[in-house]
Amino acid sequence: MCTGGCAKCLGTTLIPLAVLCTLANILLFFPGGKVVDNNLHITDEVWYFGGILGSGVLMIFPALVFLGLKNNDCCGCCGNESCGKRFAMFSSTIFAAVGVLGAGYCFVLSAVAINKGPKCNTGTEWTYPFQDGNYLSNNTLWNLCRSPENIIPWNLTLFSLLLVMSGIQAVLCSIQVVNGLLGTICGDCKCCGCCGGDGTV
């Protein structure tokens, strides 16, 4: 597959993942699916916007760049057929690296949030009643959280989704880093035909 075509395929996959990560982060602002009376009762990691910024906004820019590579003008500069395409592939590598960082940010935040557990009302105070992910293997500990209702499965499900989706995003962006470097060094498989060229770039 041409490097430009591969990038377009990756971009098409990244956009829905970015939208889903953004929605998951937004839902985390409603513990147990309910509006809270005090914002301080929301788990701290939600406020770091891992799904909105890291796997959302920072992922949209690389995705749009990848989508544009397929139709990029390979004749780009100074009459050199390969210059424009190679420069575009190089720039996509930089955006892909930004995507890896954004996805990594969301991945780490999600892992920390899952290990830490949600903030909930234990009956005496709002706190984090779990330690080192002990609630993951012992469901009886879930009774420590009196409210919000269903806060543990709610947070666990959404942060797990963020963990998986950001992991996929990081892998896809890493693929584009390699793909972009190959496109920069070797060029795309075929020139667009402008400037009288239609062969290998």
Description:
This protein is an all-alpha fold and 201 residues long. Helices cover 58% and strands 2% of the residues. The protein is built from four helices and two strands; from the N terminus they run αααββα. The protein has helices spanning 3-27, 50-69, 81-116, 151-186; strands at residues 120-121, 126-127. It has a two-stranded antiparallel ribbon. It starts with a helix and ends in a 15-residue tail after the last helix. The relative contact order is 0.21. The model is unreliable at 73-80 and 191-201 (pLDDT under 50).
Task: Throw out a few tags for this protein.
201 residues, 58% helix, mainly alpha, 2% strand, two-stranded antiparallel ribbon
Number of helical runs? 4
Q: What is the straight-line distance between the termini?
A: 14 Å
Strand content: under 5%
Q: SSE order in H/E notation?
A: HHHEEH
Alpha-beta content class: mainly alpha
Segments where pLDDT lies below 50 for 5+ residues? 73-80, 191-201
Mean pLDDT: 86
